[in-house]
Automatic annotation (TrEMBL):
It comes from the Bacteria. Its cofactor is biotin. SMART domains: Biotin_carb_C, GARS_A. CDD domains: biotinyl_domain. Residues 1-458 form the Biotin carboxylation domain. InterPro entries: ATP-grasp (IPR011761), BC-like_N (IPR005481), Biotin_BS (IPR001882), Biotin_carboxylase_complex (IPR050856), Biotin_carboxylation_dom (IPR011764), Biotin_COase_C (IPR005482), Biotin_lipoyl (IPR000089), CPAse_ATP-bd (IPR005479). The keyword Nucleotide-binding applies. It comes from Massilia pinisoli. Residues 596-673 form the Lipoyl-binding domain. This is Acetyl/propionyl/methylcrotonyl-CoA carboxylase subunit alpha. Keywords: ATP-binding, Biotin, Ligase, Nucleotide-binding. The lineage of its organism: Bacteria, Pseudomonadati, Pseudomonadota, Betaproteobacteria, Burkholderiales. Residues 120-317 form the ATP-grasp domain.
């Protein structure tokens, strides 16, 4: 076995490989770009080497620098993860030439499967079922259209060197063929530098089912059963599960044996995935082979009790496969959801920003079996932490959320619950979309095909609705319970934060906004809180609702509204409150009028007190030049501090009050002259 390996990747796969290597007593070397200097994968490895600037072409795609880093640190092998150089045959050959073990298949296997058309010709010779189509080298447009006419419409045009949904077109009619072909070829040459295409029969409502295969250098090759990856958007996977729902044992064996035949046909070694397209009637056809570990490999690990990364390391070190085919049974059901920084409501556009908060459900980072032999119910593989940034340079994946259940029903329930408890603040995510998808009737009932998301778009992308009263109540409670006493004496009524008044009832008006409210005449949700000895009365839309805080801890609140118990988490990001309750995420903008006091200069050039209070700090002096936003005076009012800031660049002509002075509502605090 190796004593040190270099991980030529980043993110969650680099962290995942490092975790398995550590368990086996293997030292790890991370490589990173300038953008990833503080990344999690750098922190979890034993050593780290800078490759270059943020752009992948200058860092993670520089095979020469990666090999040099491995040699300089004494690594014996390179694990490529997935993406970047993981399926680069030239890099695999270069590793071997440098005396390093490439933890993956030989370059010859990659080349054989790298071209979709050449791979299908190989599979035809190995008696692997193929979709009816044309996979030849001739690319004359008239010939291609004649083949499409022979196959029968609809047909699918696919870039031979393609992947990730690029260079693909569905053609419904013969008269549309030439325009679609030209478009497909333009995209193929732009994305892959090769405009060669193949033509296949387009299957309606197909399922995407793939088989995990593994081969060693001793002639052994096994299949670790199947994964259903039918739920996709623009040909990219969203949810994966194992085993495939409704898969009879006979078909499972037939697909597994076909996948092994495909692997043997190219002299495969290591982990690979043979992907099939399947009809609703159970017939299946070879689509392509991914010559690497897949993003969705954890669901296979969970149902087979195998650590596929450990298998990779052992096979690369020359050891035989740890298990034979008869030892690979299926146990339970697993589902994986890819949590991305993206906005599903805006065409799944990537979102960049900082993970201000990342509250995850109770989980393990990686575990196959506990004391009872069952995997952990919830597992998270992630390459980021709270405080990390999602940059525009790389894939916007935040985490892979994997659940296991004794059966599919239990796995579905665990996934829905785990998504409800996965809270992220700082950027847009697809978590709410994933929850709608998992709880939707089609997925829950295993009515699966690659068009599921488009077919059920109305349910998966519902129009925005008003913020519910429980969310507004949680936001209000979070704000008022954050009031900090100014005295440590709990018996002092003058410093109580519970709204005590000698005569009458303390009332406070709060206004929240969101996209839905902004589109209405009201523009905001206006609520009033009336303080009482043991809680509040919340008034909204002319109705009164008894409200009480039951418990709070670290942003988590338990309240009672109209006698009903409500729990939720509130995270504050400036004046934005992120309320997580009932499995939903509500983003509410709170405009604090006191916090904005002083932002607008009065007609006579004086900044005024927003309400009666006491001056507790003066940060400006007569004749001082200040910048816009610079704090000038701090007042204490309603047991909270409020900063009066400079409304623009300018000159403080005169400070009118000193620390300790009581100030009336509307009183001028200082004379200010804006810069020209």
């Amino acid at each position: 076995m190796f004593t040190k390996i270099l991980i030529a990747n980043r993110g969650e796969i680099a962290c995942r490989v490092a975790a398995t290597a550590r368990r086996l007593g293997i030292k790890t070397v991370a490589v990173y770009s300038e953008a990833d200097a503080n990344a999690k994968h750098v922190a979890v490895c034993d050593e780290a080497v800078l490759l270059g600037p943020a752009a992948a072409k200058d860092s993670y795609l520089r095979g020469d620098k990666i090999i040099a880093a491995a040699q300089a640190t004494g690594a014996q092998a390179i694990h490529p993860g997935y993406g970047f150089l993981s399926e680069n045959a030239e890099f695999a050959d270069a590793c071997a030439a440098a005396g390093l073990v490439f933890i993956g298949p030989p370059g010859s296997s990659m080349r054989a499967m790298g071209s979709k058309s050449a791979a299908k010709q190989l599979m035809e010779g190995a008696n692997v079922p193929l979709v009816p189509g044309y996979h030849g080298d001739a690319q004359d447009p008239e010939l291609l259209q004649a083949e499409a006419n022979r196959i029968g419409y609809p047909v699918l045009l696919k870039a031979s060197a393609g992947g990730g949904g690029k260079g693909m077109r569905v053609v419904e009619r013969s008269e549309d063929f030439q325009a679609a072909l030209a478009s497909c070829k333009r995209e193929a040459i732009s994305s892959f530098g090769d405009d060669k295409v193949l033509v296949e029969k387009y299957l309606t409502r197909p399922r995407h089912i793939e088989i995990q295969v593994f081969a060693d250098t001793h002639g052994n090759c096994v299949y670790l059963h199947e994964r259903d990856c039918s739920v996709q958007r623009r040909h990219q996977k969203v949810l994966e599960e194992a085993p495939a729902p409704g898969m009879p044992p006979e078909r499972r064996a037939a697909m597994g044996e076909a996948a092994v035949a495909a692997a043997r046909a190219v002299g495969y070694v290591g982990a690979g995935t043979v992907e099939f397209i399947a009809n609703q009637d159970g017939s299946f056809y070879f689509m392509e082979m991914n010559t690497r570990l897949q993003v969705e490999h954890p669901v296979t690990e969970m149902i087979t009790g195998t650590d596929l990364v450990e298998w990779q390391l052992r096979v690369a070190a020359g050891q035989p496969l740890p298990k034979q085919q008869h030892e690979l049974a299926i146990h339970g059901h697993a589902i994986e959801a890819r949590v991305y920084a993206e906005n599903p409501e805006k065409g799944f556009l990537p979102s960049i920003g900082t993970l201000q908060y990342m509250d995850t459900p109770a989980h393990v980072a990686f575990e196959l079996g506990g004391a009872d032999g069952n995997p952990a119910g919830v597992r998270i593989d992630s390459g980021v932490r709270a405080g990390d940034a999602i940059s525009p340079f790389y894939d916007p994946m935040i985490a892979k959320l994997i659940v296991w259940g004794a059966d599919r029903a239990q796995a579905l329930a665990r996934m829905a619950q785990a998504l409800s408890e996965f809270h992220i603040v700082g950027l847009a995510t697809n978590i709410a979309f994933l929850k709608r998808l998992v709880e939707g009737g089609a997925f829950a009932q295993a009515d699966l095909d690659t068009g599921l998301i488009e077919r059920h778009s109305a349910a998966l992308f519902p129009p925005a609705g008003p913020a519910p009263l429980p969310a507004l109540a949680l936001a209000a409670v979070a704000l008022v319970s954050a009031d900090t006493p100014t005295s440590t004496n709990p018996a002092d009524p003058w410093t109580s934060t519970h709204g005590w008044r000698m005569n009458g009832t303390c009332r406070r008006r709060l206004a929240f906004g969101d996209e839905y409210a902004a589109a209405t005449d009201a523009k905001v949700y206006a609520i009033d809180l009336a303080y009482h000895a043991h809680g509040w009365t919340l008034e909204a839309d002319g109705k009164a609702h008894p409200l009480a805080l039951v418990a709070q801890h670290d942003g988590r609140y338990a309240i009672r509204l109209d006698g009903q118990a409500i729990a939720g988490t509130v995270r504050r990001d400036g004046e934005t409150l992120h309320v997580f309750t009932g499995g939903l995420h509500h983003v509410l903008a709170w405009s604090d009028p006191l916090a904005h006091a002083g932002e607008h200069e009065t007609a006579d050039g004086r900044l005024t007190a927003p309400m009666p209070g006491k001056v507790v700090a003066v940060m400006a002096a007569n004749g001082q030049h200040v910048r816009k936003g610079e704090p000038l005076v701090i007042m204490e009012a309603m047991k909270m501090e409020h900063t009066i800031a400079a409304p623009s660049d300018g000159l403080v002509e005169e400070v009118l009050y000193q620390v300790g002075d009581q100030v009336a509502d509307g009183a001028p605090l200082l004379a200010f002259k804006a810069a020209a």
